[in-house]
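Most newcomers find our protein records easier to grasp once they have seen one. There is nothing in a record beyond a sequence line and a structure line. Getting from the letters to the tokens is the skill we practise here. An example says more than a description, so a record of this kind follows:
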Amino acid sequence: MISEDLLIKKAETIRTREHRLTPNLKLRSRQEIVEFIHSKGLVSVLGGNELPSLISAVLGKPWKPSSKGFSGWLEWWSLKMEDQRLPNLLGEIERRKDILATRVFRRTKTLVSKSLWPILGVIVEHHRELATKRMMLSDLELKLLKTIEVEGSIRTDRLRKLVRMETRGENARFHRALASLESYALTVGVEDPQPEKHLHANIWQTWKTRTGDGSARSSYRGALGKLVEKTVDACVLVSEDQVGKWFRWSTDTVSVKDELLRDGTILKADNYLVSPRVLHAKTRG
């Protein structure tokens, strides 16, 4: 049986390779980006967390937002791929029918492959039901959710008008409420590909409208267990004490994580969780 130290070292090697964190492995085309997202299931756009990072994989080295502000973003913001600026290409990827952008992981922009929609859909529906029973969400968040649900698809400026929050003083409260809905994946927003002059705005839809709601036939805890398992697999290696910070439903996540450890669905080495496939994966070639 492999020792814990060797298992962690092996997982670190595999993580570097699978997350494309060396120049020779970096993503070089739109197709490679799409395949990367689908192979991982969950991908952080910017990075700085446990998930594979799209920007890091494009650069071929670890990258995360820093205190440098926009100057740090210049490392990738001006890059081109297939004669297209990377930010524009990423916008097109977010609008694909088989990928969606959420803030479900650590409340940061996270791309989710269609293969995980049935799992995540059960969790979204669970929280939507709690919201309709007024067991979660603020009055403003619920109002925004219902408005988006009725409209089907609505741009940010029109949404602000309908909920009467058009003044500059309402900016922070309005966007904080939208971000909260995104963190539960109750709503999904993508940048308008044809914005009016001087207006950059998202188009908002509910989870059901955006995905078609092909939820798996699973219980909430069953779906949550699958999501945690898939997340650990995408991360390859993760500090156990961070799992409770991944999703808004933190208490449920931690208890499900403990169940997965007991039945061997995920492994533990020292203070880390490890994907079980690391045991049989090759570290060379």
